[in-house]
TrEMBL record:
<dbReference type="InterPro" id="IPR002401">
    <property type="entry name" value="Cyt_P450_E_grp-I"/>
</dbReference>
<protein>
    <recommendedName>
        <fullName>Cytochrome P450</fullName>
    </recommendedName>
</protein>
<dbReference type="InterPro" id="IPR036396">
    <property type="entry name" value="Cyt_P450_sf"/>
</dbReference>
<dbReference type="Pfam" id="PF00067">
    <property type="entry name" value="p450"/>
</dbReference>
<dbReference type="GO" id="GO:0020037">
    <property type="term" value="F:heme binding"/>
</dbReference>
<keyword id="KW-0560">Oxidoreductase</keyword>
<feature type="transmembrane region" description="Helical">
    <location>
        <begin position="15"/>
        <end position="35"/>
    </location>
</feature>
<keyword id="KW-0408">Iron</keyword>
<keyword id="KW-0472">Membrane</keyword>
<keyword id="KW-0349">Heme</keyword>
<keyword id="KW-1133">Transmembrane helix</keyword>
<comment type="similarity">
    <text>Belongs to the cytochrome P450 family.</text>
</comment>
<dbReference type="GO" id="GO:0004497">
    <property type="term" value="F:monooxygenase activity"/>
</dbReference>
<dbReference type="GO" id="GO:0005506">
    <property type="term" value="F:iron ion binding"/>
</dbReference>
<dbReference type="InterPro" id="IPR001128">
    <property type="entry name" value="Cyt_P450"/>
</dbReference>
<dbReference type="GO" id="GO:0016705">
    <property type="term" value="F:oxidoreductase activity, acting on paired donors, with incorporation or reduction of molecular oxygen"/>
</dbReference>
<keyword id="KW-0479">Metal-binding</keyword>
Length: 116
């Protein structure tokens, strides 16, 4: 049989197919990491995969104060692969821990929890 395309053309097509497939998978994964969980509080969008990690380059107090003004006393953001929820007032924290204790049970210890 006559080889009209040749081996090099076939290799280029296979290379292009692999490149496009990997690109679509990478973009899909990046977008999937940005989808907020259902009923998650509002907060900054962040970047794919790293979330709001690069937003935390200043003092946390200054950043959180800005986010509280923008999103309210309860807000959430993504830090790496973990979704974080920030509760700003003692009454909100008490209400959350007492009325929704099941949701908070079994959570990993956080550095801030040591000081409470």
């Amino acid at each position: 049989m006559i080889d009209l395309l040749g081996d090099s053309s076939l290799a280029q097509v296979n290379g292009l197919t692999i490149t496009v497939t990997l690109g679509v998978v990478a973009i899909s994964l990046a977008l999937w990491t940005m989808v907020r969980p259902r009923n998650f509080p509002p907060g900054p969008k962040g970047l794919p995969i790293v979330g709001s990690l690069f937003s935390l380059d200043e003092s946390l107090e200054k950043i959180f104060t800005g986010w509280i003004k923008q999103y309210g006393d309860i807000f959430g953001f993504k830090l790496g692969e973990h979704w974080m929820v920030v509760l700003n007032h003692q009454e909100i924290i008490k209400k959350a821990l007492l009325k929704q204790s099941v949701q908070f049970a079994g959570r990993p210890r956080s550095p801030s929890g040591v000081y409470m």
